[in-house]
Amino acid sequence: MFVYVVMYRTSTLMRLRLLEQNFLYEHLRHYYKTLNPNSNFRAIIGLRLQSICKLHTMALIDTAATMIFTSSSSSSSTARLLLFNNTKLHKFPNTISNFRRSTSLHFGTSSPTSRTIVTHCSSSPASAIQVNNETLATVIDGKRVAKDIREEIAVEISRMKEEIGIVPGLAVILVGDRKDSATYVRNKKKACDSVGINSYEVRLAEDSTEEEVLNHISKFNDDPSVHGILVQLPLPSHMNEQNVLNAVCIEKDVDGFHPLNIGRLAMRGREPLFVPCTPKGCIELLHRYDIPIKGKRAVVIGRSNIVGMPAALLLQREDATVSIVHSRTKNPEEITRQADIIISAVGQPNMVRGSWVKPGAVLIDVGINPVEDPECARGYRLVGDICYEEASKVASAITPVPGGVGPMTIAMLLSNTLLSAKRIHNLR
Ligand SMILES: Nc1nc(=O)c2c([nH]1)NC[C@@H]1CN(c3ccc(C(=O)N[C@@H](CCC(=O)O)C(=O)O)cc3)C=[N+]21
């Protein structure tokens, strides 16, 4: 089986007057004829965008593509309309050079292969054509975006070092020996090293006192080489989380958990010092995939202080119409089914089923839930809150777990640490 891709630039579409439906239809049909040597045919029609395509254009191309594939003799034809844009395309150099050579392309033999070229898809339901119950929701690649961001941050940090001789520093306090916390802290340290942030780590025993933690925080508050302080949560139950978090001075609270910070986040016309990392990472993913937020219906599942609540505030700041669904919500699926964008942060494996999702919705899965799996080396594997298997058949774009929001959380922590150092040292 072959995958064919026909890709247009917006400017070409304009020049060829292809935006008039029949012209486009004829044009695509021409390609279809020349490219269809056998009946077992699969096509992806890509549209290269200079800017976000207008909805009516989308609908038009959608219709033309459907016309072609319904008028074809092959019953096994599959048509998908995908949107590509310039910023995403440069990450697929081979794909692009092939596109330049010809407008058609042979891909591998199975649909997983074709996934590799899926770089961007509009959140509009009109953008995804489904035939044969086939699905290819865009996989929002958090791991890749996080890597891009780390590279951007590394450049900024070396500039900072050169201009004012300052290297940003991040202090992490870890209490107890939860395995998952230890893993995150290790990942954070690795990420700091990769961009040139100095990291300072304090590990305290599970039975340490709150006072000890407060002492360390106080020292870091006063240490000019430390620009960000993070107390890894959850803390042991004998400690008062509020007391501890309140002790971190707001200028170094790179988690953005300080109440004053959340207050500013909630108010119009005010700016928080730091946007909490996980929600910031979610929005950054939407931005980097050119997924529009303004005027969209967004549903946040979960109302935690560290993800759900600030995520809802951020979406509102981006002009979405926001609803929050939580453990006491009656018929949550009725509400999520109305959403153009869903951010789920509840910690329940596979809770959000395919039937909860509106066709074409964009899904951001914050949940990182271990489920037992004897076939995995660690004895467990990680799954999200969203049933990926089902939801990816309905959505237009979805974040995987792992490799979605998780790496973005860490990238945003680095970004906040850099921001803090710049602010403290009055750099641009
Ligand atoms: N003060 C504080 N700030 C936090 O930001 C904070 C915290 N406490 N406590 C715990 C949660 C959780 N968290 C994660 C960060 C990265 C991954 C991550 O990179 N996950 C990888 C998988 C990692 C693995 O394989 O175990 C992924 O999703 O691809 C996950 C979870 C930050 N948190």
TrEMBL record:
InterPro entries, sorted: Aminoacid_DH-like_N_sf (IPR046346), NAD(P)-bd_dom_sf (IPR036291), THF_DH/CycHdrlase (IPR000672), THF_DH/CycHdrlase_cat_dom (IPR020630), THF_DH/CycHdrlase_CS (IPR020867), THF_DH/CycHdrlase_NAD-bd_dom (IPR020631)
Keywords: Hydrolase, Multifunctional enzyme, NADP, One-carbon metabolism, Oxidoreductase, Photorespiration
Secretion signal span: none
Keyword Hydrolase: yes
Pathway: One-carbon metabolism; tetrahydrofolate interconversion
CDD domains in UniProt: NAD_bind_m-THF_DH_Cyclohyd (cd01080)
Keyword NADP (UniProt): yes
EC code(s) of this entry: 1.5.1.5, 3.5.4.9
Pfam families, sorted: THF_DHG_CYH (PF00763), THF_DHG_CYH_C (PF02882)
A biological process term (GO) from this entry: tetrahydrofolate interconversion
HAMAP family: THF_DHG_CYH
Subunit structure, interactors included: Homodimer.
Family per record: Belongs to the tetrahydrofolate dehydrogenase/cyclohydrolase family.
Job description of the protein: Catalyzes the oxidation of 5,10-methylenetetrahydrofolate to 5,10-methenyltetrahydrofolate and then the hydrolysis of 5,10-methenyltetrahydrofolate to 10-formyltetrahydrofolate.
The name this protein goes by in its record: Methenyltetrahydrofolate cyclohydrolase, Methylenetetrahydrofolate dehydrogenase (NADP(+))
